[in-house]
Amino acid sequence: MTADELRRAFLDFFAERGHTVVPSASLIPVDPTVLFTVAGMVPFKPFFLGEEVPPYKRAVSVQKCVRAGGKHNDLDEIGRTKRHLSFFEMLGNFSFGDYFKSEAIPFAWELVTDVLGLDPDRLWVTVHVTDDEAAELWANVVGVAPERIQRFDEDNFWRMGDVGPCGPSSEIFWDKGPEHGPDGGPQADPHGDRYIEIWNLVFMQYDQQPDGSRLELPRPSIDTGAGLERILAVLQGVDSVFEIDVFRPLIAAAEAVTGVRYGSGGEADVSLRILAEHGRTMTFVVSDGVVPSNEERGYVLRRIIRRAIRHAYLLGVRDLVTPAMVDATVEVMGGAYPELVRDRDLIVKVVRREEERFRQTLQRGLDLLDGLVEGATSPARTPSSSTTPWASPSTSRGRSRRSGGGRSTSPASNRAWPSSGPGPRRRTGRRGARLSRPSRSTASCSTSTGPRSSPVARSTRAGPGSWPSSRGASGSRGRGRATTSTWSSTGPPSTRRPEARWATPVRSTGPTARPTSSWATPSTA
Q1: With CB atoms counted within 10 Å of each terminal CB, which end of the chain scores lower, N or C?
Q2: Is 295 exposed, middle or buried (0-12, 13-18, 19+ CB in 10 A)?
Q3: Predicted local distance difference test score (pLDDT) of residue 432
């Protein structure tokens, strides 16, 4: 059975039993308590809470869901397990005060065994420790062997939140076989390697109060959720959701853009799975109106896109990969979700722009790293005032940690600073001002007649003004006394300097005496 066939079989089964077929809602929920639609029941939450009157008593849907941020976050597990996904489809049937356990349990069993054709002898059931009614229905009405009905506590009690509708749940598990773990049912398999949950039936029969007590709901309801990808893995006889029909073309697309073959079982396979899975997620999220940003949903989307790019980078890919993954997703899932076809060009434009920006950032970082490595491995140079304008004039009492581009001879600091011409590497401020690498000492900077330009950063950003007396030019608190200085606003930024001196005490004892700042002046040495 394919993904399209499973969606149709599920919807048709419940439509024939009086359920209204409801299209998937957006991944952007009305509910402000979640970033994304994380379950099939989220669009129906107002009906369960009694805030709105439902237009139908029974409903069935195939809901697109994302769990990649906030409380519901499986992002770190993706690609490393056989079942975790950031985007997935949830099959669900719902009753809003119409039917309850005695109908929901037989519905589920009939669908799983008769329609999907799963072997009843390989199905296990769990119920809440207090739910004798559900256990009796499974055993006496459905006919599940009592030894394959197990009881759990918190794992089989579902809550919408700290207060509100809640109730016990009952889950259906598929036994993958003894080659995947020991016998004993779900209780003997806490990690779900052998017994995999394929359907969860929630019996919402209580209203939890702020004091922890629970009141009986006047109209108990049903909320079920079955993972389409997990059921497909069972139906198609594969061991992982990444091997089902909707994922094989995506893995193939990841292979094509990376040139790496899937199947080694190593980290390369993990990267290919993440690239395929995240390509699908970013396609659906952008289609529903989210754009990359640094806040909330946009931040989650940005993280997903950049994780995919990073894993492509780990595979040695320097060309764009996200447009191809979007195209593959639209090709595979556009039939079930026509909005993907409609929005293809927009989705490609959004993810391409984000990837181009991130790759520029990656390249700058690699260039910086190369410079640091090259500087750290280059031979040390002897600083001189003629070739190294950043060297400390006060060389008689200790060598500056900032002198030249080589290693400091100070025992207290054996760091190698990269060389970028005569002197330490400098970085550019927000408005083009040249910034020095911040001093690691605890002293303030001093002013000399050399062409140092480190104080320029603040002067050019803040305009003419004065430094606070408690801080040095690097922004760190100084040990020495500092007088407030007025900044000169004449001349180009690289020549602007304060008109007052910054005094810096110098340690003068021991064989390695040196200034406490890398910019000590001769007058204070």
Answers
A1: N
A2: exposed
A3: 42
d(CA 164, CA 431): 53
Residue given tokens 């005569």 in the structure block: 422
Of 250, 239, 96, the closest CA to residue 174 belongs to 239
Which residues contact residue 272 at a Cβ distance below 8 angstroms, ignoring those fewer than 6 apart?
Answer: 251, 254, 255, 258, 260, 262, 311, 315
SS (H, E, C) 231-287: HHHHHCCCCCHHHCCCCHHHHHHHHHHHCCCCCCCCHHHHHHHHHHHHHHHHHHHHH
Report the pLDDT value the prediction gives residue 435, as an integer from 0 to 100. 42
Question: Phi and psi of 245, rounded to 5°?
Answer: -65, -30
* Banded pLDDT at 366 (limits 50, 70, 90): low
For the chain, what percentages of helix, strand and coil (3-state, to nearest 5) are there? 35, 20, 45
Dist CA 85 CA 241 (whole Å): 9
pLDDT of 49 above 60: yes
**Who has greater pLDDT, 377 or 314?**
314
- Please say whether the beta carbons of 392 and 515 come within 8 A: yes
- H or E segment and range at residue 108: helix 101-110
CA separation for the pair 196, 174 (Å, rounded):
5
Integer Cα distance of 65 and 366 in angstroms: 36
Partner residues linked to 327 by β-bridges: none
Other beta carbons within 10 Å of 219? 13
The pLDDT confidence band at residue 76, using thresholds 50, 70 and 90, is confident
Helix (H, G, I), strand (E, B) or coil at 39: coil
Residue 134, burial from CB neighbour count under 10 angstroms (0-12, 13-18, 19+): buried
DSSP β-ladder status, 427-428 and 434-435? antiparallel
Per-residue pLDDT tens for 190-243?
Answer: 888 899 999 999 999 888 888 888 888 878 999 999 999 999 999 999 999 999
Taking each helix axis from N to C terminus, what angle separates 267-287 and 296-314, rounded to the nearest 10 degrees? 150
Q: What does the alpha-carbon distance between residue 36 and residue 41 come to, in Å, rounded to a whole number?
A: 12
Q: Are 385 and 427 contacting, i.e. CB atoms less than 8 angstroms apart?
A: no
Q: Name the DSSP class of 404.
A: S
| Separation between Cα atoms, residue 432 and residue 18, nearest integer Å | 68
248-258 and 322-333 helices, crossing angle to 10°: 160
pLDDT of residue 370: 65
Q: What is the pLDDT of residue 225?
A: 94
Task: For 29-156, list the strands marked E by DSSP.
Answer: 58-66, 68-69, 72-73, 87-95, 123-128, 149-152
Locus of tokens 């599920």: 10
